Description:
- By secondary structure, this protein is an all-alpha fold.
- About 75% of the residues lie in helices and about 0% in strands.
- The protein contains six helices and no strands.
- The termini are far apart.
Amino acid sequence: xxxxxxxxxxxxxxxxxxxxxxxNDTIIGYIFxxxxxxxxxxxxxxxxxxxxxxxxxxxSYEGNPMELHKHLHRxxxxxxxxxxxxxxxxxxxxxxxxxxAIADLAKQRAISISTVMQIKIFKEDSSHxxxx
Length: 132
């Protein structure tokens, strides 16, 4: 039986394993490696804090992921397929490593965050298409 996500060490394992998959993924990997050219030494600790705060309300994350993703979308249009693959890789990683209430919460929060980002990003796109 797998254990649940219990602490920052577990969050780090989840984030590291997830982004190892992302880097090699044929659908979204290039966004991180070629488009954004992510500095992993800086990005991973931010993601540890983001997910630790998201799951345990630690207050350890400061940032605006929505604005970062809107900026990314302007550099390279994100699609529903990109978000679906991100969600798939994240949920698969959680399921491989953990089980329990916090693991379920992590998957739910990932989908909720992804959904809100898509709504805001794609709504912004459609508002630019309107003729006044």
